[in-house]
Amino acid sequence: MAEPAVSRPAASHLVRWAQGLLDALLYSNGLVAGSAAALAVSSAQYWRRPLPWTVSALVLAATLFVYNLNGARRHSLRLPPNVPPRRRWIVQHRPLLVGIVAASALALLGLYLLTPFTLLLTGFLGHLALLSLAYSWPVLPPKEPGGRRRGLRDWPGLKTFLIAYVWSAVTVWLPALCLDLPLSSGPVWLLFARRFCFILAIALVFDLRDYQRDRRNGPLTLPGLLGYQGGRWLALACTLASVALLLPGLSPAGQLVLLLPAVLTALVVWFANETRSDYYFALLADGVLLVQAIVLIVAAAV
Q1: Contact 209, 145 (CB under 8 A)
Q2: Contacts of 85 (CB under 8 A, 6+ apart)
Q3: What is residue 176's three-state secondary structure?
Q4: Of 164, 169, 173, 261, whose CA–CA distance to 206 is shortest?
Q5: 254-285 tens-digit pLDDT
Q6: Main-chain dihedrals φ then ψ at residue 140, nearest 5 degrees
């Protein structure tokens, strides 16, 4: 009998190499950053206006920077045996994450200074920066006299709304500003509202994943306030709301195509639970973001 074309050790090595590459893409937030840039491009494609490459590159660099900051800080190398694979990968590859943060920060600075939209970006990114500071810094009064002041993150249920707002602002309002489109126009507002509902549904999936941890450590997320099933139904309601917000200017075929990411999101929400692997959330849940971008580009073209 002839020997197989690829030996078992070679095939095993290839599988390990592919898995390592996938882990690097997912756990360094490469998929998340690419999806954010693609969503910004898809917004411009819906408005049938070309988006300058510097804008999508800036969104890519900013997402890589923000999402890898926590992973780049120092971590204890003594990990318990049952630590999730994502956490283990982050600790073991901290030098890589530090390099990504440094490179994305330099790219972000260069794009900000070289882009023709510097003045527009200053005010827009400034309000997002203030929001980020208020999220972490103690800007809210204490619950009781003499108590500690609180940040926005201490407000139960607020985190998920902030995530949905920032993602929608960066992927809808930012391209609109750079394309000189009024933010109050119907196509911009409808896309913003649709994107907000969609991102809110995806963010709730991750709240469902962290349900028990958030109940133990706080602050409570929306599922913590509404109950586990209540959070799931809210995510499904947000998905349905994003479908109900029909985008003007698309053909019937385009409107039909837009149902695909909604169906995928509903399935991800329905089958999400705390026992799912890291791949379920990092690949499937985050992957729906990229599907949403691709489908909107296709819908605008048909």
Answers
A1: no
A2: 23, 277, 278
A3: helix
A4: 164
A5: 999 999 999 999 999 999 988 898 899 999 99
A6: -95, 145
Residue 276 to residue 278: CA distance in whole angstroms: 7
Q: Note whether 201 and 242 are within 8 A (CB).
A: yes
Which residue carries 């000189």 as its tokens? 180
203 or 138, which is more confident?
A: 203
Residues 6 or more apart whose Cβ sits within 8 Å of residue 80: none
CA-nearest of 198, 197, 166, 191 to 176 is: 191
Q: Tell me the H-state helices in 137-257.
A: 158-168, 174-178, 186-209, 211-217, 222-226, 228-244, 252-257
CB neighbourhood size of 121 (10 A): 19
Distance from C-alpha of 198 to C-alpha of 286, rounded to nearest angstrom: 12
Burial of 235 (0-12, 13-18, 19+ CB in 10 A): buried
Which amino acid belongs to residue 30?
A: G
Structure tokens at 59: 């969104």
Is residue 285 a contact partner of residue 206, using CB atoms and an 8 Å limit? yes
Q: How far apart are CA 266 and CA 239, in angstroms?
A: 7
Share of the chain above pLDDT 90, in %: 58
Predicted TM-score (pTM) of this structure = 0.89
**Tokens 């999936």 correspond to what residue?**
205
Question: What sign results for the dihedral spanned by CA atoms 239, 241, 244, 249?
Answer: negative
Closest alpha carbon to 294 in 264, 269, 257: 257
Task: Scan for tokens 């349905």, then name that residue.
Answer: 240
- For the record, the structure tokens of 7 come out as 């030996």
